[in-house]
Design brief:
binds magnesium ion, Rossmann fold, binds guanosine-5'-triphosphate, about 425 residues
Length: about 425
């Protein structure tokens, strides 16, 4: 009896549903896509009891899948108490309502977006992360509010033993729904304002960083590729790294010294996933803007993953959408310790390609040399005349730039140097050759 209770109430159970649209999953088979959905479900603490898919030319506007398929799902889960059905795409509010009607009262219907938002909510530790997730959740929920309220009515009706949404319930229900909507709308306005403040703060921070002239390397990649593990390996950052999707939501920046002595900043941030919900992208704008402003993109990919090529493609698409498509980048195949043949993946887009293991440290020295080379390639050749009063700047130039010639004159020190783009603002006023 006790076991039965645990089985049916404590562990949430779910059944996964996807559609196979010809042409859409060019890189992902429907099975691989549902594998990823299963991993998302597991990360959210949900046990998957089964899955199904349907081949359709396009999703059905009213029910996403065909009605026959809905009946098939209903039968498949009839023995699982309180089962949740998770769809591998964002459902429209109408589709969700119709599916719930067809599947019946006990069945909760959620979609990939709700699942991702749920994971984000669990993993948001900072104030900023929490504001971003809360905003994304409210934006997603507002058009779906009817459903939430009908659920409450059902519970009330159930306890009273009466019918669903009866005459006595309709009035207060509508009022409640309206006031819930008003509350959410107000909350959205407040959260957006708070996020504006966060963005401003981040912008100031980046401006200060720009003024400091230190180059920034952004670690980006598909979720679970090993970005945080790499930052930890490079800098003892102490960032949480777990075999979970979206373990990191909040950006972390650490200083790393390159082999030639130059100090650069490495930033670890939120991972990407295919069909990244647009509410998440919009809410995480403050975080994503940091990627677009980096000097170098270090794209981390998991070489041991069966969908590694597709994950790289997805990440590049998101980078492009975020305005970071033209930033110099290096593609780093991580987890080399897990594969025997390191050259099985022929996917490089003609870019810098490296194989590393954040776990064993293999390839890390080569990676640092590669980053240094990339920064050196961006250096600009300038002639500077630094007055003697600017001795602090002179010291910074010796540290941050490659100084090739020094001549002391009556007016100051004339220097021929190669300057990184991030340092140009600092010395522009003293340039004599442009
Ligand atoms: N075998 C092996 N495992 C690794 C390596 N790098 C990372 N991992 C493991 O991969 C999992 C994910 O690593 P994370 O560093 O959290 O990945 P992430 O890219 O930061 O992931 P999110 O923050 O969730 O987007 C963890 O279980 C790590 O221990 C590696 O080089 N080899
Ligand atoms: Mg991480």
């Amino acid at each position: 009896m006790k076991e039965d209770f645990i089985d049916n109430h404590i562990t949430e159970k779910a059944y996964l549903v996807g559609i196979d649209v010809p042409g859409e999953h060019s890189l992902w088979t429907i099975d691989e896509s549902l594998n990823e959905l299963e991993l998302l479900a597991k990360t959210a603490g949900i046990e998957v009891v089964g899955r199904t898919s349907q081949r359709l030319a396009q999703p059905r506007p009213a029910t996403y899948i065909g009605e026959g398929k809905v009946t098939e799902i209903k039968n498949a889960i009839s023995h699982v108490k309180g089962c949740t059905v998770i769809f591998d795409d964002e459902l429209s509010p109408g589709q969700q309502r119709n599916l719930e009607k067809l599947l019946g009262d006990d069945i909760r219907v959620i979609d990939r977006t709700a699942l991702i938002l749920d994971i984000f909510a669990r993993h948001a530790y900072s104030k900023e992360g929490q504001i971003q997730v809360e905003l994304a959740q409210y934006e997603y929920r507002l058009p779906r509010l009817t459903r939430m309220w009908t659920h409450l009515i059902r519970q009330a009706g159930g306890r009273a033993g009466g019918s669903i949404g009866g005459v006595g319930l309709r009035g207060p229900g509508e009022t409640q729904l309206e006031s819930d909507r008003r509350f959410i709308k107000k909350r959205i306005i407040l959260l957006k304002k708070q996020l504006d403040d966060v963005r401003l703060h981040r912008q100031h921070h980046r401006m200060r960083r720009k003024k400091s002239g230190i180059s920034v390397v952004a670690l980006v990649g598909y979720t679970n590729a090993g970005k945080s593990s790499l930052l930890n390996r490079l800098s003892n950052a102490g960032v949480i790294s777990e075999d979970k999707l979206f373990a990191t939501l909040d950006p972390t920046t650490r200083r790393v010294t390159l082999p030639g002595g130059r100090v650069v900043l490495f930033t670890d941030t939120v991972g990407f996933i295919k069909k990244l919900p647009h509410h998440v992208v919009a809410a995480f704008r403050a975080t994503l803007e940091g990627i677009a402003e980096a000097d170098i993109i270090l794209h981390v990919a998991d070489i041991s993953h069966p969908m590694a090529g597709a994950q790289v493609e997805t990440t590049e698409k998101v980078l492009f959408e975020q305005g970071a498509g033209n930033t110099p980048s290096v593609l780093v195949w991580n987890k080399s310790d897990l594969v025997k043949n390191k050259f099985t993946i022929d996917y490089n887009h003609g870019k810098n390609n490296l194989t590393i293991s954040a776990l064993t440290g293999e390839g890390i020295p080569e990676l640092l040399v590669c980053i240094e080379d990339m920064i050196n390639k961006q250096l600009r050749s300038v002639t500077l005349e630094i007055p003697y009063a600017e001795s602090a700047l002179l010291n910074r130039i010796y540290k941050e730039c490659q100084v090739n010639e020094i001549v002391h004159t009556d007016n100051g020190t004339i220097i021929k140097a190669l300057v990184p783009p991030s340092f140009m603002d600092k010395v522009k006023a003293f340039c004599t050759n442009f």
